[in-house]
Write a structure and sequence with these properties.
By secondary structure, the protein is an all-alpha fold. The protein has helices spanning 5-45, 50-53, 71-99, 105-131, 153-194. The protein is elongated. The chain starts with a helix and ends with a helix.
Length: 195
């Protein structure tokens, strides 16, 4: 009995990538929901004018838009954008530690979103390597993320809200991008295994 090992390997690789994508999509949806809840908690903890502070424009917050033409470029853009937000999420946590009581639900929610986001970035990286095993994981192009200079309390509140809202927007874009990749890349790989 002869077995076409290339098809078997491709099929199992496609199954592995499909499972990896589903796991990544589930975590993306979870982090997205957590970010929506986090913004509500954030606004509730900022006192008066919380709606106003969230409408102010702030420089130095990463762009939430995914870039690239090829699926590999777009997936790597997702990964690097997530990485770009980590220092900002950390800064918001540090600032809120000074402004909130240690038992504040906001601090718990910020920690949860930060941890989930790091897990998501790791899954995205694994998924990238699964789909594109022959492509190296490129280094982030932009260099270190620029954080804002020292801020007064009002500026800290504004910065925190803008970072969280922009991050929520990035997560929506990530979810959309992963669904698009699912329809393009996984089907293409599946079709290749059939022939």
């Amino acid at each position: 009995m002869a077995v076409d090992s290339s098809r078997t390997v491709a099929a199992s690789g496609n199954q592995q990538c499909g499972n990896s994508l589903l796991q990544t999509l589930k975590l993306t949806r979870l982090v997205q929901k957590e970010s929506v809840d986090l913004i509500k908690t954030y606004k509730a903890s900022q006192g008066e004018m919380s709606e106003l502070i969230c409408k102010v424009f702030v420089n130095n917050v990463p762009d939430p838009n995914i870039s690239g033409l090829e699926p590999s470029e777009r997936l790597m853009s997702v990964y690097t954008h997530l990485q770009d937000f980590f220092p900002h999420l950390k800064r918001v946590y540090e600032q809120q530690t000074d402004l909130q009581s240690p038992t504040s639900p906001l601090l718990t929610d910020l920690s949860r979103v930060n941890a989930s986001s790091r897990n998501l970035a790791a899954l995205i990286n694994d998924f990238y390597q699964c789909l594109f095993p022959n492509l190296p994981v490129p280094e982030p192009a932009g260099g270190p993320t620029t954080l804002p200079p020292p801020q007064n309390v009002f500026q800290q509140k504004v910065y925190g809200c803008v970072v969280l809202k922009t991050y929520k927007e990035l997560l929506s874009n990530v979810s959309r991008e992963l669904r698009t990749l699912k329809s393009k890349v996984c089907r293409r790989t599946q079709m290749n295994t059939l022939f």
